[in-house]
Amino acid sequence: MHILLTGGTGLIGSQLISRLLQRGDQISVVTRDVAAARSKFGDRVNLWSGLDQQRDLNDIDAVINLAGEPIADKRWTEKQKNLLCESRWQITERLASLINASATPPSVLISGSATGFYGDAGDVILTEDDPGHEEFTHKLCAHWEKLALAAESEQTRVCLLRTGVVLTKEGGALSKMKLPFKMGIGGPIGSGKQYMPWIHLEDMLNAILWLLDNPGLQGPFNMVAPYAVRNEQFAAMLGQAMHRPAFMRTPAAAIKVMMGESAVLVLGGQHVLPKRLEESGFTFRWYQLDEALRDVV
Fold this sequence. Notes:
Helices cover 40% and strands 17% of the residues. It is α/β, with parallel strands linked by helices. The protein starts with a strand and ends with a helix.
């Protein structure tokens, strides 16, 4: 299978490429920094410096779209919010346009999204049927998904990855969460009652491959473990996994001062369930957070 992938040098993309190569798939990666990607992947993948020269994707069997500016790295100024949106929207719109221009288009577009689609939902249990509500993360994800769905046709199915916090050994959100625990000042954030949807990287990769290989699957999928936990539970289990204390609560007011509007990413939450993944027959390897944290920490 010839797979075109965006976001290939990122946390999930780079690991996914390794899995795809092991299967014997041919990989082409869209990247802004060809030299850096070449040093990372060598000659194992084809590198595209962009999509401007492409007129169609007739030679591509599947597209996996993971590109996007990290959402939690900087304060949400208007400039940063525009960058967060455009880094996702522009390439997704271009991919959909190329797929629609193809006489023999890719059979599937698997495109990124996030549990932020639902917004800060408190204790409400959420499945893929819930519409979300108006706030910045919902607007970002809803339009992102709409652009991807424009590629849908009888020949091309579209799968949307509404992803929670991905737990990995290196990088990602967990690396930032571990820092205060290493310093002995870790603990819950704000009330600690907010839910944290999470997924182990191994399950994330397996789920993407599941969607890739099962032609009957399309639409949104919550990429989260079946058992959501509250922030205070997460903090306690992370402390146990790291053998560090977890009693220093960070006040919500301090988080709001540090992060501004983006504080909703850690003070808000979603009680999200992977309903459609489980109904499709996908089996999770990592159900329990304490076991997942011990594995990655």
